[in-house]
Design goal:
The chain is an alpha+beta fold. The protein contains ten helices and twelve strands. The strands form three sheets. It has an eight-stranded antiparallel sheet, sandwiched between helices. Strands 3-4 form a two-stranded antiparallel sheet. The chain has a two-stranded antiparallel sheet with strand order 5-6. β8 and β9 form a beta hairpin. α1 packs antiparallel against α10, α2 packs across α6 and α2 packs across α9. The chain is globular, with a radius of gyration of 20 Å. The two termini are 25 Å apart.
Length: 361
């Protein structure tokens, strides 16, 4: 099976690796209770520094699955309800529309919000916290959107969700994520550093030495290793960095194949449960997306910037997981993952019939 997996991964990711060495890919395939690692290309072209499973990548919007898990924990503890308005915690929200948006709608991208930071053409202005509240209070839908009635992907909604979590617990989101999710799982290389004035992540030399150089789709270097991008200039909005080794731990945890507290296991499952049905083929969970491709149900989350691309995907009923981290922008690993890699891996692990009276774990 290993040779087949190697062939599937190599073919599926080949187009993501720049032939001139400007960027590469780190991959984890979780299958049969094992994590298999594959590394291609360079973390930095000029130094011919190869990508490894410990290289640190900016994972972009993959961060959202961690915030969704944090929210799911809060729901299980009774600390937050999904039907509560975000304005209960972020009291600066006074606009007619935003006051009706619930926490659950933020988590499932059904709030209807669509700020300029959520779609191209990307704006040039940045938001302070006060400016962010002003934009949310002034926002009105242009196409008849209503809270909870449609799925519209919004980065701004998750920034607001971060603020809700911080207000509820009185702690920075990076501390909450570390104490409640990454540290308990043993993910020692997954961090949310602040963004410095030069768009560099403020991280220790130990982490910075492992950070990859980011490249554009066409091979131009963008920023320096540790580059962060964003439109929100207030604490907690820096992007997450992680490694293939750390995200392999997340895959194992999602399948219950790693020791953890029962509450965290329940929170991971709750975060992946469908909250909104978008079409016959697509559903939306908390951050995670649910799709059916070629008869295979995939629960996944893509992320990306102009110098980084990331993907985490699961086939829950076969306990197959996939992580793809690229230090090139706009190579869209989710396309290959959904259309070829995960369906082909699924062929290697046929579904086992349930034994009468047995319970799935």
């Amino acid at each position: 099976m290993d040779s087949e997996i190697d062939h599937i991964i190599g073919n599926g990711t080949a187009a993501m690796v720049d032939p001139n060495g400007a960027g590469g890919v780190a991959v984890v395939a979780r299958i049969g209770g094992r994590s298999l690692f594959f590394n291609y290309g360079y973390a930095e072209q000029a130094e011919k520094r190869p990508i490894t499973s410990d290289s640190l990548f900016n994972v972009g919007s993959v961060r959202k699955v961690f915030e969704a898990t944090l929210l799911a924990q809060a729901v299980l503890r009774g600390d937050i309800r999904l039907d509560e308005p975000a304005a209960k915690y972020v009291t600066e929200l006074t606009g007619d529309y935003i006051r009706r948006v619930t926490i659950g709608q933020l988590a499932s991208h059904t709030s209807g919000l669509l700020l300029p930071t959520d779609h191209p053409p990307w704006p040039s202005e940045h938001f302070s916290s006060a400016g962010f509240y002003d934009a949310l209070n002034a926002w009105t839908p242009s196409g008849g959107e209503q809270p909870g009635k449609q799925r519209i992907y919004t980065h701004a909604g998750y920034v607001l969700l971060q603020l809700v979590l911080e207000r509820r617990y009185g702690k920075p989101v990076a501390e909450l994520l570390d104490r409640r999710i990454t540290a308990p799982l043993g993910m020692t290389s997954t961090i949310v550093p602040e963004r410095g004035p030069d768009d560099q992540a403020i991280m220790s030399p130990h982490f910075l030495r492992r950070a990859v150089q980011g490249y554009s789709l066409h091979g131009e270097a963008i920023g320096r290793p540790g580059n962060q991008q964003g439109y929100f200039d207030f604490p907690g909005t820096g992007q997450m960095f992680s490694s293939a080794h750390d995200l392999a731990i997340l895959l194992a945890a999602c399948f219950g194949e790693r020791p953890m507290e029962p509450e965290l296991r329940k929170a991971l499952l709750l975060s992946q449960s469908e909250q909104f049905r978008d079409s016959a083929r697509y559903g939306q969970a908390m951050a995670w997306e649910i799709e059916n491709f070629l008869g295979v149900t995939i629960v996944d989350k893509p992320g990306g910037l102009d110098n980084a691309s990331a993907y985490v995907g699961l086939i829950p009923d076969r306990k197959i997981g996939l992580v793809i981290l690229a230090n090139r922008g706009d190579v869209h690993p989710f396309v290959a993952a959904r259309s070829t890699i995960l369906p082909e891996l699924a062929r290697l692990v046929p579904l086992r019939p349930q034994v009468a009276g047995s319970a799935a774990r």
